[in-house]
Design a protein that fits this description.
The complex is a heterodimer of chains A (617) and B (330). Helix content of chain A is 36%, strand content 19%. With 617 residues, chain A is of the alpha/beta class. In chain A, the strands form five sheets. Chain A has a seven-stranded mixed beta sheet, sandwiched between helices. Chain B has an eight-stranded mixed beta sheet with strand order 2-1-3-4-6-5-11-7, sandwiched between helices. Chain B has a three-stranded antiparallel beta sheet with strand order 8-9-10. Chain B has a domain of 213 residues: 3-Layer(aba) Sandwich (Rossmann fold), CATH 3.40.50.970. The chains are: A alpha/beta (617), B alpha/beta (330). Strand 9 of chain A pairs antiparallel with strand 12 of chain B.
């Protein structure tokens, strides 16, 4: 590994109780403060504290950082930090020859090798020959560094993650201050732990300086990003979704009621919003998924915007209630942080396999608009868009994110919030009166009257209602009218959404059409393929139902359409269904994001060499 | 607002229950109770689930939400938390509230959300044509139990008590004298009020409450609970309930017999959950307990919720965006 680079990939791995995710998050923050662009991939097991030293208990955190534009967490780590034998062996397959491996030599005891199902010590049996291995007595050095603070041996050992972080921060010349500030806040009430963690961090850093003098370990200089003038922070998808919902409430001047039930990987959204109660959001932890969506619908009926969130299995439980929101023409936002299925599937592993569920998965003719986010920070704008559609058209909206987006983070230029358009809604003016089921012909939105409004007392329900009065109606012609109206409402949303643009590339050859969290990897793959002379363009969809009105025409300008997805081919089905286009599929369902090289191989197999260009700007 | 009469709370919708259904009587009592309490239609919401009883909101001229099967308590909770100033009523039945929606009823009661919950108990599924319900007595013949149902039934008031309900009342559907007052008591109660209505489904479970409801015998088969009053009943009000301290059970005694005096009769204490427990479970030959069986004071969820989760927007998005470490490249 050379000591200067445009980008680097580092992977931290250890037991699920080792604080690996915290270590990763702190390194991410330091990288951002150093001015690197970055993308991260937290990769952890569903077990909270799996048995120590086992392979299935390994928790990992990968980050790619540097200059240029970093959009994916990287295919292969340049540096692997492994805190025990299991963390080492399960990550060897991720490495390319020449990678640098830092290991805690203290952890390679006979007993811990056995816990990792190893018959021989990988530090000695030759399997690490393709790599540069750097064993350090991390556990011993950590305990030594925190001795002055009088911690018990268990607490002293727990400072290991900060020792390692200190060393890796030194390796890449990243600042320690953000982490020290964080430790001071987090452990404000426990001086000994606070000081010990800071001491461990500094000791790891000092170890690097000494090792450099010895000539055994080098400091690496990674390029800094050329950042446009802005303020930047790192943000995870769950944080950005929460902020987006709050921002939407402010743009609409409507209070939000967020009703949810804990489920991996969606719970973090509830956690973040619970911390934002002074920002016009009330949160309610319901008794189950059904009660969560129902209480949100109740809130919407009462004039607040109900929002609920879950992952696939929970969305399945909410499905009947979504039909109620459609039938009663109430606004509602449903955030689905997708995970690998079916059934419980793999709760902490990412997948994009709930698109059918979102677009088609209901009884009756029950159209619901669907939007999806492409990067962690993009969930901010996607959440605003979801609320905008819900309120403008008086409809439930499904917003798709996934486990990867919820947990991963990126460097985010803070948006200019003053530039955001206010969100329209149909709450009637105080003191007014009128007909609740008078609809705006452009949006089909009815009047959003609510209990407390004097001039609109009305009744509504899930039984088919008369299109004008809202009273129960079994009239055949009325059901036709109402069904048509619900479909027209969905179709008319397309009049308000922007035309689909090319993310990069030009028309003519291969279009890579995708949605959701695969954005960054595909961006990188397409970019490299364009540089290599292939005729390929990237189209990434935010609006999945309805599709942008120009998409069909745009796709006719390509010879081939490649649809990479982390499912068995769901967007491909939707495109065939709605646009009658043929697509080539690239599908992966391993619970892991695509690697850039996987997407590049598929592009190379289908994209022609560039011959002519039609620049669409 | 001009004073409204009971009939002013009726809607223009044709009521579509079977002729002779107990629901007509309950609807009438609801209109009366709304008038008696001076309810503002714009501030009042009726939320229902699915079933015959759940059609009621269409016939009450307030805000109304006819929702999905079993979920009315959850939806009503959302309505109440979004706007705690509203007077929110839940209309449900034995199938809707205790079968498919048992979970939500449990949680609305244990949270003590300020809702007035009316459970129409006719011990049968009406709208799906007569199958046995979770309150059907063992041996109930029905299309799905032609040889009689096997399930052990649940006692609604016992369920409510187990869930921690702070208000439990019981009334016969046709009791126009008592019912409006009981509904008003539930409406006034701070917290979840649970009112079990013994409702007569004349098509699928006709006269299932005959032993309790028959006006000719009611005096001997019902004991009406009044806080601070001895639990007396009978046509001549000479029968009463006495606590047998050896068996810890209630027994029926007659004044003047075996030296029984008024001093032996248990005095109703509506705040006493142990007494409520005994009263709701009384079965033949003991009378059925009616009226307000249990009422105690406890903070309503929506009032503590409102205190903790103010919807006032104090933090602004611009500040929240700048949370944490910032890299300034302006």
């Amino acid at each position: 590994m050379s000591d200067t680079a445009s980008r680097r990939v580092v992977r931290f791995a250890g037991d699920s109780g080792d604080g690996i995710q915290l270590q990763g998050a702190q390194f991410t923050n330091a990288s951002a403060m150093a001015g690197h662009d970055l993308a991260t991939l937290p990769d952890f097991p569903a077990e909270i504290r799996a048995p120590q030293g086992t392979r299935f208990g390994v928790s990992a955190f990968q980050i790619q950082f540097g200059g240029d534009r970093v959009t994916s967490p990287g295919d292969a780590p340049d540096v692997l930090v492994a805190l025990n034998p299991a963390a080492l062996v399960v990550n060897i397959p991720h490495l390319e020859p020449g990678a640098l491996i830092l290991v805690d030599a203290n952890a390679f005891t006979a007993q811990r090798l056995k816990r990792a199902d190893l018959d021989s010590n990988p530090l000695e049996d030759g399997r690490l020959d393709p790599f540069t291995v750097y064993p350090i007595d991390i556990s011993d050095l950590t305990v030594e560094s925190v001795k002055p603070f009088g911690l018990g041996s268990k607490d002293a050992g727990r400072c290991k993650n900060f020792w390692v972080l200190g060393l890796v921060l030194w390796m890449f010349d990243q600042p320690r201050t953000p982490t020290i500030n964080w430790i001071e806040r987090r452990f404000a009430s426990d001086e000994a732990i606070r000081d010990a963690n800071i001491a461990a961090l500094n000791a790891g850093h000092a170890y690097g300086e000494t090792a450099e003098i010895d000539g055994t370990l080098a400091q690496h200089h990674v390029a800094h990003a050329e950042l446009k003038a802005a303020e930047y922070r790192t943000i995870t998808g769950a944080e950005a979704t929460a902020l987006g919902l709050v921002a939407a409430g402010e743009l609409a001047d409507i209070d939000l009621m967020f009703c949810s039930y804990p489920i991996t990987p969606a719970s973090s959204l509830l956690h973040h919003l619970t911390g934002l109660e002074d920002a016009g959001v009330a949160t309610f932890q319901a008794e189950d998924e059904i009660a969560a969506v129902c209480s949100a619908i109740g809130a919407s009926f009462a004039g607040k915007l109900g929002v609920t969130s879950s992952s696939g299995p929970g969305i399945a439980l909410k499905t009947e209630a979504l039909g109620l929101a459609v039938a009663t023409e109430l606004p509602l936002v449903v955030v689905n942080s997708q995970r690998a299925g079916p059934s419980t599937g793999m709760p902490t592993k990412t997948e994009q396999s709930d698109l059918y569920q979102a677009v088609y998965g209901r009884n009756g003719d029950t159209p619901i608009p669907v939007v999806s986010a492409s990067t962690p920070a993009d969930t901010f704008d996607t959440a605003i868009e979801a609320v905008r559609i819900a309120l403008r058209h008086m409809t439930p909206v499904i917003m798709l994110t996934d486990g990867y987006l919820a947990n991963a983070s990126e460097l985010w230029p803070l948006p200019d919030f003053d530039a955001y358009e206010a969100i329209e809604h149909t709450r009637p003016a105080v003191g007014s009166s009128g007909d609740v089921f008078e609809r705006n012909p452009d949006t089909q939105a009815r009047v959003w009257a609510a209990p407390g409004d004097e001039g609109y007392v009305y009744r509504v329900g899930g039984i088919e209602k008369d299109s004008h009065t809202g009273n129960i109606s079994y009239d055949p012609a009325n059901h036709q009218t109402m069904t048509d109206l619900r479909h027209r409402k969905l179709a008319q949303i397309a009049d308000f959404i922007p035309e689909q643009k090319l993310e990069q590339g030009v028309t003519g050859g291969l279009a890579v059409v995708a949605w959701g969290s695969t954005y960054g990897t595909i961006y990188q793959a397409v970019k490299e393929c364009i540089t290599e002379g292939l005729s390929v363009a990237q189209i990434h969809l935010r609006h999945l139902n309805p599709l942008p009105s120009n998409l069909g025409e745009l796709l006719t300008e390509f010879e081939t359409i490649l649809v990479p997805e982390l499912n068995a081919g769901q967007l491909a089905t939707v495109l065939r269904d709605q646009l009658l286009v043929e697509c080539v599929q690239l599908n992966q369902v391993t619970g892991q994001p695509f690697a850039v090289k996987t997407v590049k191989q598929a592009i190379a197999a289908h994209a022609p060499q560039r011959m002519q260009e039609v620049n669409r700007g | 607002m001009a004073e409204l009469k009971a009939k002013d709370y009726a809607t223009d919708q044709e009521v579509r229950w079977c002729p002779g259904c107990g629901d007509y009587s309950i609807l009438k009592a609801v209109h009366r109770a709304l008038a008696d309490s001076g309810a503002d239609p714009a501030q009042t919401v009726f939320v229902s689930g699915i079933g015959c009883s759940s059609r009621l909101p269409y016939y009450v001229d307030t805000y109304g939400f006819h929702t999905i099967h079993g979920r009315a308590p959850a939806i009503a909770t959302g309505v109440k938390l979004a706007n705690p100033d509203l007077d929110v009523w839940v209309i449900t039945g034995d199938g809707d509230g205790l079968s498919i929606g048992g979970n939500h009823l449990l949680h609305a009661l244990r949270r003590n959300v300020n809702l007035n919950i009316l459970l129409f108990n006719n011990e049968i599924y009406g709208l799906t044509k007569g199958q046995y319900s979770p309150t059907s007595r063992i041996g109930t013949p029905s299309p799905t139990s032609p040889n009689g149902s096997l399930d052990h039934p649940i006692e609604p008031a016992q369920f409510a008590l187990g869930a921690g309900a702070t208000f439990i009342a019981r009334c016969v559907d046709i009791d126009q004298k008592a019912l409006p007052g009981i509904l008003n008591a539930g409406q006034a109660h701070e917290g979840a009020a649970f009112v079990e209505l013994l409702q007569n489904c004349i098509v699928y479970n006709k006269d299932v409450w005959e032993d309790v409801a028959n006006k000719k015998t009611a005096a001997d088969t019902q004991v009406v609970c009044e806080h601070g009053q001895p639990l007396l009943y009978g046509k001549d009000r000479n029968k009463g309930l006495r606590l047998n301290t050896t068996t810890l059970t209630l027994e029926s005694v007659t004044l003047g017999e075996d030296g029984i005096t008024l001093a032996d009769i248990l005095v109703h204490d509506e705040t006493n959950a142990v007494m409520a427990q005994m009263l709701v479970n009384m079965a033949d030959p003991l009378p059925t307990a009616m009226g307000v069986i249990h009422r105690r004071s406890a903070p309503a969820y929506d009032s503590t919720y409102r205190a903790h989760k103010t919807l006032e927007r104090k933090a602004r998005v611009r500040d929240l965006l700048r949370h944490g470490n910032l890299l300034d490249r302006r």
